[in-house]
Each structure stands twice: as structure tokens, then as C-alpha cells.
Design goal:
About 35% of the residues lie in helices and about 25% in strands. By secondary structure, it is of the alpha+beta class.
Length: about 325
């Protein structure tokens, strides 16, 4: 590595650690990860075309479990059989259906082919968890992401944004004493972080346990179809609808969408006790949760960060938000 490359790599390592990437004691593994991140940030350009890319670094889970855990048909192609240099292999790696596996073991790098594209942020989280490795992707739309046990790091053009693992949010709710369905809460948080926040879709989601005593609301839109946040096939229409409406979306105890585009009506006494906080969406969620203490309110900002609110106070927020 030349001196300029070494200095750039050192700066990148420092920047990533400051942003939430844990330091790595294995120098070989650290070098592989930094190499892939640097490549994703500085891809080769051909005739103004910037290629996407994807690498899975040091997967520790048995390859025999990958298909079941990811629900993908995966073909393994040894790089040695292709008689190609690493840079040549990268030409075939799109970070959607084709991926490069990098390992610290000699001769163990390989080429993975999926039966369908798996390049959304939600997909990357599944890949990292199933393979027990770190995923580095440059998406065709431009975003660069690093995903692993530490959560998700997204490059936003000027800085890295860190989304902690979903378990961090669930731990905060557990400490807070919430008694709702943990699977529904996990599904709502995954959608908020990896489907809405990752795409810049602002939203106000309310998970209600008590259907009898709700604060005053105005339902301005027709009742929605009973889409369930726990069903993967229901997420696309949920995300699509939420990207087109203002107001809150209310989910019942089973995670089924019951209302969308809801206006949360003000309460004079509550407004006086709880002054405006951050923006309109956060303020509305804060005041609503004070009147409906059994609920969990999730606020997704248009620029990505997520805040979880209960009983009129935030209990968990994305770092730096």
C-alpha cells in the first residue's frame, strides 16, 4: 500500500470508529473491511457509469445454514475456478444478486449468486445476521452501507449515520416496562429503521394496546386494508402508502394497520405541560404518548433518524439525532 493510500485508510478507520464501528483487533480482518469500504466509496467509473458493489466480509456462520436463514437460493463459485484477479471478479459483483465473499483464510474468497436481488437495507441486515459477518454495499442508487453486529452505518455524503441494532431499541422498551407483543414491536422498528428511515420516508407510527380509551383523533382517510407489519409481503404496500400521506398510522396489538393519515387532535392542558420538541411530527407524537401511556410511538424523520417515545418522553433515539 502506498503512503497516500495508507494515510487515506487510516483516516477512514478513524472516521468509522468515531461513527460507531467497533475497533477490530484482527489486523487482517480490519484491512479487508477497510479495503471494501474504501472501494465502495471510491468506485471505478466507466463512461460516467458508477457501478454498484457488494462484499460479505469474514462470514462465520456455516454456509449450510445460509439458504434457510436468508430464504435465498445461493450458488457458490470459487474465485480460483474463474482464473480471475480480485479486481476482475468485482466486475461481476452488483451487491444485489451477486456478491463477493472476503475472508482472512487463504484461498477462501468466493463469488455468491442469489436467485433474486437482495440489496435493500432490510436485506443487508438479514444477510449480516444469517452469515454472521459484515456486509459492505454500494447500492445502485448511490448509498454506501456497512452492516454488522454493531447495526448499520450509512454514508450520507458528508458523514456517517449510525443506526444501532434493533435489539438496542427493544432493550430500552423492556427497561421501560412495556408489555406489548415483542414480535410486533421488533417488526415495527425494523420497518421504521430499515424500510422508512433508510429511504427518507418520514412517518409517525403508533402501536396501541388499549382500543377502548384513545386520545382524540380525526380519521381523515378511509379505513385501510388489514396489512400486518409482521408479514414480509405486506411491507411493500405499507411503505408505499406511508410515503404518500401525512398524519399518524395506528397499529393494533397484533401489528395490523387500523388507521392511516390520522390527525392527532391537540389537548390544551397537555400542550401547556409539554412544549414543542424538535419538529411538528415529534411534538405530536410526544403529546399523544402522554395521553396514551400504554402506547409506543415511533417517529421517523425524513432524514432517517428514528425516535421511540413513551409516556410523553423519548426513551430511545438514534445516535446524534
Amino acid at each position: 500500500m502506498s503512503d497516500p493510500e495508507a494515510r487515506r485508510t487510516a483516516r477512514l478507520a478513524e472516521e468509522l470508529e468515531e461513527s460507531g464501528l467497533p475497533p477490530e483487533s484482527d489486523e487482517r480482518l480490519r484491512g479487508l473491511l477497510l479495503e471494501e469500504v474504501d472501494r465502495a466509496l471510491r468506485p471505478p467509473v466507466h463512461e460516467r457509469h458508477v457501478p454498484s458493489s457488494g462484499a460479505i466480509v469474514e462470514p462465520r456462520a456455516s454456509p449450510g445454514t445460509w439458504t434457510v436463514e436468508t430464504q435465498l437460493d445461493i450458488s457458490h463459485v470459487p474465485i480460483g475456478d474463474m482464473s480471475l484477479a480480485l479486481d476482475d471478479v468485482r466486475r461481476y459483483v452488483d451487491g444485489l444478486s451477486s456478491w463477493l465473499v472476503r475472508t482472512t483464510g487463504p484461498g477462501q474468497d468466493e463469488f455468491l449468486l442469489f436467485d433474486r436481488p437482495a440489496g435493500s437495507e432490510r436485506d443487508l441486515v438479514v444477510l449480516a445476521e444469517a452469515m454472521e459477518g459484515c456486509v459492505v454495499q454500494r447500492h445502485p442508487a448511490g448509498p454506501v452501507r456497512i452492516v454488522g453486529p454493531f447495526g448499520v452505518l450509512r454514508w450520507e455524503g458528508l458523514r456517517w449515520h449510525h443506526e444501532p441494532p434493533i435489539t438496542t431499541w427493544l432493550d430500552a422498551l423492556s427497561v421501560d416496562g412495556h408489555t406489548g407483543d415483542i414480535e410486533v414491536l421488533e417488526a415495527l422498528l425494523r420497518m421504521s429503521v430499515h424500510d422508512l428511515g433508510a429511504l427518507g420516508i418520514g412517518a409517525l407510527l403508533i402501536y396501541r394496546l388499549d382500543s377502548d380509551h384513545a386520545p382524540r383523533i380525526e380519521e381523515r382517510l378511509s379505513p385501510p386494508p388489514p396489512l400486518c407489519v409482521r408479514k414480509a409481503t405486506h411491507l411493500a404496500p405499507l411503505r408505499h402508502a406511508l410515503s404518500q400521506v401525512d398524519g399518524a398510522a395506528i397499529f393494533d396489538e397484533d401489528g395490523i394497520l387500523r388507521s392511516i393519515g390520522v390527525e392527532l387532535l391537540p389537548n390544551t392542558e397537555g400542550d401547556r405541560l409539554l412544549p414543542p420538541w424538535r419538529g411538528t411530527r415529534h411534538t405530536a407524537g410526544l403529546r399523544y404518548s402522554d395521553e396514551d401511556p400504554a402506547s409506543v410511538v415511533i417517529v421517523v424523520s425524513e432524514d432517517g433518524p428514528v425516535t421511540v417515545i413513551r409516556k410523553g418522553a423519548p426513551i430511545a433515539r438514534a445516535p446524534g439525532s
